[in-house]
Amino acid sequence: MYIQVQLKDVLERIRAAEERCGRPAGSVRLVAVSKTFPAEDVARAVEAGQTVFGENRLQEAMEKMPLLPKGLEWHLIGPLQRNKVRKALQQGFALLHAVDSLRLAEAISRVAGELGVAAPILLEVNVDGEESKHGFSVEELRNEWDGIARLPHLDIRGLMAIPAPAESAEGVRPAFACLRHVRDELAARGPLPLPELSMGMSHDFEVAVEEGATMVRVGSLIFGKRDYAR
Ligand SMILES: *Cc1c(COP(=O)(O)O)cnc(C)c1O
């Protein structure tokens, strides 16, 4: 019951946030983040109507996906190593959220070309500018954009960010706004429209919706507290 109730609550809060800021109902998709939770928990969410799931580790996703019904949409939301690109593409993820460097983007384009597909990806942006974090810095992305946009076997749908946690959800608003501004700037430059913005997690997804998210990645609020030792 817990998962169904929580899922319904998150969906209602997304709808309410859409309405508050005048966005059409259904503008924002919920990616239910099932990392560390067993396939049985995902199955509960599927019974409740959820079809889009996010995993952050390739190995864990590959173990879980065969245990669940076909026709679900799986997103890889965590970092991807270059030597695992082929495996990830063969696994059939609907979207790779965390493409965080030009070298990784090039590797994905090359392997996608070999497999005869266009890899659906988002570029991860380090909106806080902290050295230690994953993602393109805003400057890097501006400088490398023309090269990235020209890579032949990528389907670059938009941008993603994991801002540093703040005291309150409001504290993360500037980081979300930053990601949207960067998207708007690159989309204006062309040649790609970059419709998707993947931002917002359990603690701040409503603010992310208000700032233009088209996908929110919510885990613990739906599935419960994570036990990383499991
Ligand atoms: C775990 C994770 C989430 C979900 O986090 P919650 O706080 O549990 O909602 C979202 N995005 C990424 C990249 C994650 O790794």
What does this structure look like?
The protein has 9 helices and 8 strands. It has about 230 residues and is α/β, with parallel strands linked by helices. The longest helix has 19 residues, at about 1-20. An 8-stranded parallel sheet has the order 7-6-5-4-3-2-1-8. The two termini are about 20 Å apart. The chain is globular. It has one domain (about 1-225): Alanine racemase (TIM Barrel, Alpha-Beta Barrel), CATH 3.20.20.10. The site of pyridoxal-5'-phosphate has 13 residues, from strand 8 and helix 9. Pyridoxal-5'-phosphate binds near residues 56, 202 and 218. Keywords: Pyridoxal phosphate. It comes from Akkermansia glycaniphila. Pyridoxal 5'-phosphate (PLP)-binding protein, which is involved in PLP homeostasis. Belongs to the pyridoxal phosphate-binding protein YggS/PROSC family.
